[in-house]
Protein: Xylose isomerase-like TIM barrel domain-containing protein
Amino acid sequence: MEGFSRRNFLAGAGAAAAACSVRPLFALVPKSPFKIGVISDEISPDFDHACSVISKDFGLQWVELRSMWGKSLHELSDSQLSDAEKILAKYSLRVTDMGSPLFKVDWPDAPKSSFSPKHDFGANDSFKQQGELLDKYMALAKRFKTDKIRCFDFWRLDDVKPHRAAIDDQLKKAAETCGKNGLLLVIENEFECNTATAPEAARILAAIPSRHFGLNWDPANAVMRGELDAFPVGWNLLPKNRILHCHVKNAVKGPDGKIAWSPVDKGFIDWTAQFRDLKNIGYHGAVSLETHWHGAATHEESTRISWAGMKAALQNSGTL
Structure:
């Protein structure tokens, strides 16, 4: 204690208080069984700003990559990808997965889906391009040090049965390709695609038992497809050891009777209970905020509101 004075102590205390005012205290020693993250473009297309919010304001260490600077990840130049790597290092953020648009296309030789014009997040028009797209995302996954690539189950058909076996085979082959490269293919139950609900998710996991293939569980997407009891009823149908990723958002029934996106703490999904159940099954993967609700003035403000609800649910469930 030689040379230590009250002035030194007060100066050190002041510095510590200043540091905590910049970064939330809980972020200094994050305690959660989950990798808590946010899809960056739900905050802003400006990747640096989005990462600043995730790290400094939300106090998190994980980010899901889907698009940045107005382009899907696979459309970025090598220089832009290098900039993204520098930004991640700047904010000490790690990547949960590649939020790719793989297989968000029409299935060939089938009637055109009513959803196929919606080519969001860089989804390509052609089925033939999907092999090249998978190659790009495998390279991107290795570059950004994650082992997971998100995919979909093709734009939803009114009658998928005549094509179901062939689609399953295509997904199985993609999972095998990922496995040979030390990666996992993670299918999202998406309300505009052929796997949208919990029963449909359980079916495809049974049809493709590969250890390289799992589920990105999104209960709100199932609600949007009309499965209002996605949690807990739909959840109870899922093989829990196959859940590899989780998207966090919510949905409500609006005044017009239609389902609409909502902040995380308002809607059909009880996220406190869902987080508790994820913890109870020993899940240690990502829970990634995918706001979708844009009821506030900006996407960033909407995401801040949803993060507040998500954080409260995590705390109330004993997972933060």
Q: What stands out?
A: Confidence is low (pLDDT under 50) at residues 1-29. The first helix runs from residue 6 to 22. Residues 38-316 form a domain with the TIM Barrel fold (CATH 3.20.20.150). The first strand starts at residue 35 and ends at 39.
